[in-house]
Design goal:
Helix content: 25-40%
Largest sheet: 5 strands, mixed
Radius of gyration: 16 Å
Oligomer: single chain
Length: 205
């Protein structure tokens, strides 16, 4: 595996590349963007979800991923989560002045999903999402959880995602990605009232 990261001086932009025998990924994330996305993973439904995540989180997001999708999409989806999580960690830097916490309820037709996060440095996912079907197009719906695990772990985010209602798996997963993006948008914002201050009683995040 090879991996490299780069953050642009003074800005909250990170580019992360990661290559393994299974996937080759390059991703650029701008925390202070306007939701401009350019995503190509070779997995159409996953591209749609990443686009929703970036647009509703107001993150500028470029993703180029090539993986062994002839086997299935598992490695590609999980590894994009790893790289995106690493980009969040890189772009956040020392986290001074951030809001730190964020939450969002997102409805999509009959579906309603809550996402809440803490940029705690303790990467963990707590996921209670009921999905009626296992496949959407060619996408294995269990991979949504695998992506969120990889994202939370590598970003150092405590992330809770819960479906409160829903009958259509597409609606539920899309609401989850949108809610996660919006929660992270809130948590990563700079609060001018605490500019330069780390939002922690411990003195570290």
């Amino acid at each position: 595996m090879t991996e490299h990261c780069a953050a642009e001086g003074g800005s909250r932009i990170a580019t992360v590349a990661r290559a393994t025998k299974e996937t080759d990924i390059e991703l650029t994330l701008n925390l202070d963007g306007t939701g401009v996305t350019d995503v190509d993973t070779g997995v159409p439904f996953f591209d749609h979800m990443l686009d929703a995540f970036g647009r509703h989180g107001l993150f500028d997001l470029t993703v180029r991923a090539r993986g062994d999708i002839e086997v299935d999409a598992h490695h590609t989806v999980e590894d994009v989560g790893i790289v995106l999580g690493g980009a969040f960690a890189q772009a956040l830097g020392d986290k001074r002045g951030i809001v730190r916490f964020g939450s969002s309820y997102v409805p999509m037709d009959e579906a309603l999903v809550l996402a809440a996060c803490d940029l705690s440095g303790r990467g963990q996912l707590h996921y209670a999402v009921d999905l009626p079907i296992e496949i959407i197009g060619t996408f294995d719906t269990t991979l949504a959880k695998e992506f969120m695990i990889a994202l939370a772990t590598n970003a150092g985010v405590t992330l809770h995602i819960r479906s409160l209602s829903g009958e259509n798996s597409h609606h539920i997963i899309e609401a989850a990605f949108k809610a996660c993006g919006r929660a992270l948008c809130d948590a990563t914002r700079i609060n001018p009232r605490i500019a330069g201050v780390l939002p922690s009683t411990k003195g570290s995040l």
